[in-house]
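cron nightly-structures :: item 1 of 1
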Amino acid sequence: MSAVKTYRRLARRAAAVAATTALSLTLAACGGDETEAPGGDPDASPADVLAAAKTRIDETSGVRLELATDATPEGDYLGSAAGVIVVDPPAFEGKAAGRFAGLSASDVGVVSVDGVFYANIIGGFTELDRPRCVPDPAGLLDPDTGISSILAQATDLQQGDAERGGDNNDEIFTPYTATVPGPAIKNILPCAPGTSFDATFTVDDAGELRGIDLTGDFFEGTDELTYTITVEDYDVEQEIAKP
């Protein structure tokens, strides 16, 4: 998926959330709709919800995931990545966009297997030294250094208002704002110099993490920007081999 398509998709999703929020307020005013707590437990604390969401990620066989920013900082950076990550063995297959070795690129095929990074840049996949500011996408499900580790290190948790959404407006999403320490983010995006980051975690009524918005200093000498991580599918199974 190209960066442009990813951004448009995120924009459409944001618009859909705004529309469903209005619908939820209307239903609530009429007394005709109630939202369920994440995981079905109305007494769960925000910390409990995020701990359960971390366990769910750590136990999955794989996910379909997107990571993107609409910013264009100077130097090399990852603008977007979208594809499948599997756990055993850790591997990724998908597309990426951004600026690598000073060259802008979009819709680049990327495979990471056995710690080796391949990109389809000139008519075929070639083994490459991974750019310094680009994470190994195959490692994003690592329980200690991947996206679930951010959940475990979040502090100052606050639960927001649940909203209906999804393709048929039949899902319920609850946001949790938090602060995340810089080292946890650096595992995900290795050039991030910030000491702390603002985070919003979105958890559905099944207790699954569906999205993360991270805002802070991701690159030296630039303004704060936001990366969005969207987890589209869980329990994905896909054989990913060296290209």
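cron nightly-structures :: done
The first helix runs from residue 3 to 29.
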